[in-house]
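Hi all, posting the design record for the shared folder.

TITLE: backbone redesign
STEP: 1 of 1
STRUCTURE INPUT:
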């Protein structure tokens, strides 16, 4: 990965450019004056950067989000052009692919569902390319600037590699999604596991709010046939967000759950026997028992990291109606200082396309990030968005 060379006026100009770009994306309608105060930039610097963004058609002038009460010239608000480009989020699951198209403000434009027989590792590329082609065709003249992909399994987010995915048959060998798909399509893209994608989506949707530290719990039940089948699976993945970024861990296995209870007959992440998994879809008592045990595990994690928010997504809220109360009580029992009043437990309201939407949000978060001195991933992605144009002339 190319790196920013430390030092120099050019680096400062580039850093300031992306700071302003993100600030406008985070708060549509913000004025130049507000940006100068918030980002500690002078008027001349701000004027230059805004002119560059307007020249690129990335930003536009709109009504301000705050009315100026003082007499004088009325301030002008700034916003990222929502139709500058569109982002597609794709979600792999056992029986197909779901997709959603978002604009630059993360508004949903269109959704897709591509059902198929149970996917295998050898079908990942061909199945995805068919789905991608259909989405591209439906977009017609709308410019697609990037894609995000949600994968059930262990994913190397930085290199774009699926390390392991039982659901997709990636077990003995890895699958290089970057090389096999993104490079073939010649379009910028990112992949991550489904729980992390859900977390990315919440960061994007709530980018103007304080969502810097939270836990996303993605619970899924994947029945592969109408009758019971050994491949049916009850699973959970965790997305840990610390200081505004998903935490991956050194080998990208952060968020992988396994019960602390040992049962020689258990067959999955939970303390469940095959008979219990067989009855899971129709037995409310088993559903509740599994979640109560899981909540005890999560309470330790929530309190250890002092998460201010826990978001529950996937199939679970439909199966156990009082999940918020169960988890909230478990967190309070585990907290040593009375009730943990500052922890919010909430249910994600976007059930059908959670991971696909989150994958699109992941792409937007990546390109609107402020490059650190040790990498410039978002900056390099913008170069590809602009057809590999060298943006250095802006700085």
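Okay, here is what came back for every position:
SEQUENCE:
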């Amino acid at each position: 990965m190319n790196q920013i060379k430390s030092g120099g006026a050019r680096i400062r100009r580039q850093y300031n450019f992306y700071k302003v770009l993100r600030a406008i994306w985070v708060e549509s309608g913000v004025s130049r004056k507000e940006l100068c105060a918030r980002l500690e930039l002078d008027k001349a610097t701000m004027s230059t950067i805004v002119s560059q963004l307007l020249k690129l058609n990335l930003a536009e002038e709109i009504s301000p989000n705050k009315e100026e009460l003082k007499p004088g010239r009325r301030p002008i608000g700034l916003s990222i052009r929502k139709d500058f480009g569109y982002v597609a989020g794709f979600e792999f699951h056992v029986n197909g692919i779901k997709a959603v198209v978002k604009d630059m403000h993360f508004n949903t434009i269109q959704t897709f569902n591509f059902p198929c027989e149970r996917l295998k590792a050898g079908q990942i590329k061909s199945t995805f390319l068919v789905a991608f082609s259909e989405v591209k065709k439906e977009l017609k003249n709308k410019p697609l600037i990037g894609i995000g992909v949600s994968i059930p399994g262990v994913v190397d987010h930085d290199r774009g590699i699926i390390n392991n995915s039982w659901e997709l048959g990636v077990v003995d060998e890895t699958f290089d999604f970057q090389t096999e798909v993104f490079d073939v399509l010649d379009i910028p893209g990112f992949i991550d596991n489904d729980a992390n994608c859900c977390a990315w989506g919440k960061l994007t949707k709530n980018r103007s709010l304080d969502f810097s530290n939270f836990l996303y719990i993605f619970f899924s039940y994947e029945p592969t046939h109408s009758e019971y089948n050994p491949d049916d699976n009850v699973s959970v993945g965790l997305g840990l967000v610390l200081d505004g970024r998903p935490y991956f861990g050194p080998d990208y296995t952060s968020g992988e759950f396994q019960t602390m209870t040992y049962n020689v007959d258990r067959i999955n992440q939970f303390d469940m026997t095959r008979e219990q998994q067989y009855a899971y879809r129709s037995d409310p008592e088993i559903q509740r028992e599994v979640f109560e045990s899981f909540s005890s595990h999560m309470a330790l994690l929530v309190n250890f990291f002092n998460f201010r928010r826990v978001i529950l997504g996937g199939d679970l809220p439909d199966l156990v109606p009082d999940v918020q109360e169960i988890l909230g009580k478990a967190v309070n029992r585990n907290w040593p200082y009375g009730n943990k009043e500052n922890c919010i437990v909430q249910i994600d309201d976007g059930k059908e396309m959670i991971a696909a939407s989150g994958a699109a949000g992941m792409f937007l978060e990546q390109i609107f990030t402020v490059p650190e001195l040790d990498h410039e991933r978002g900056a390099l992605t913008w170069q590809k968005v602009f057809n590999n144009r060298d943006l250095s002339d802006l700085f």
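COMMENT: The radius of gyration is 23 Å.
Let me know if anyone wants the other runs.
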